[in-house]
Amino acid sequence: MAMKLAEKIRYLREVEGSLRGMNRSMTQQELLRAIETETGGSLSQSYLSQIESGARPHLTNTTRQVLAKFFKVHPGYLVDDPEGYHADLLSDARVLEDKVDLWLVSGAERFRRDPELRAALLKLARNERSRHCLLLLASILDTPHLVERLTEILRPAEVERKPAKAVPKKAARGRKE
Questions:
Q1: What does the alpha-carbon distance between residue 150 and residue 15 come to, in Å, rounded to a whole number?
Q2: Which helix (H) or strand (E) holds 13?
Q3: CA distance 139 to 95
Q4: Which residues have a Cβ under 8 Å from the Cβ of 34 and sit 6 or more positions away?
Q5: Domain 5-89 CATH (choose: 3.90.1150.10, 1.10.3720.10, 1.10.520.10, 1.10.260.40)
Q6: Rounded mean pLDDT of 96-103?
Q7: 8 Å CB contact between 60 and 47
């Protein structure tokens, strides 16, 4: 189904609110503050309101660039879809990447009580190549001792607080006492 620019902006505010753990859409004011803080760009609340209401169906190039940079979308996404446009015309790779991102955001919401894991899942979902990152993680896990070595290098505090490794159950059963 073809989407209008106004619907896309409202949708992006909703997704961004979810990615930031708000469990709701970002308000227009929150969005404007975040844009200024994170990109250095600025928009007025009245201009954003006109865009979202459909009163202003087109963006200036500067506004399009600021919004695209903030939401991490291609600037060409920030226009009305042409008549007859269908989302299934998107490349399979982009659709797959979007599905992975939504799955990660959903997973992050399930782990609200584990802020570190939740933040890691959201960081992964925000990455442009989240699928690639997951495949890279699989390769790391397939490489003997790489997880331990990377943990020693990247998260040394975690190694210090980790208890001594227990003897695996199978090995413990076979030992004579």
A1: 32
A2: helix 5-19
A3: 23
A4: 16, 26, 70
A5: 1.10.260.40
A6: 78
A7: no
With b for 16 or more beta-carbon neighbours within 10 A and e for fewer, the 159-168 pattern comes to eeeeeeeeee
* pLDDT tens per residue across span 109-154: 788 888 889 888 888 888 888 888 899 999 999 988 898 888 888 8
Rounded to an integer, what distance in angstroms lies between the CA atom of residue 53 and that of residue 45? 12
Q: Which two tokens stand for residue 89?
A: 């015309």
All residues at 6 or more sequence positions from 86 whose CB lies less than 8 Å from its CB, including other chains: 1, 2
Residue 151 CB neighbour total at 10 angstroms: 13
pLDDT in tens, 47-57: 999 999 989 98
d(CA 23, CA 109): 8
Q: Is the pLDDT of residue 76 over 50?
A: yes
Q: What is the DSSP letter of 127?
A: S
Angle of helix 45-53 relative to helix 5-19, nearest 10 degrees, comes to 120
Of the candidates 19, 17, 7, 14, the one whose C-alpha atom is nearest the C-alpha of residue 124 is 19
Upper half-sphere CA count for residue 131 (Cβ side, 13 Å): 10
Report the SS3 class of residue 108: helix
Gap between the Cα atoms of 20 and 113, Å rounded = 15
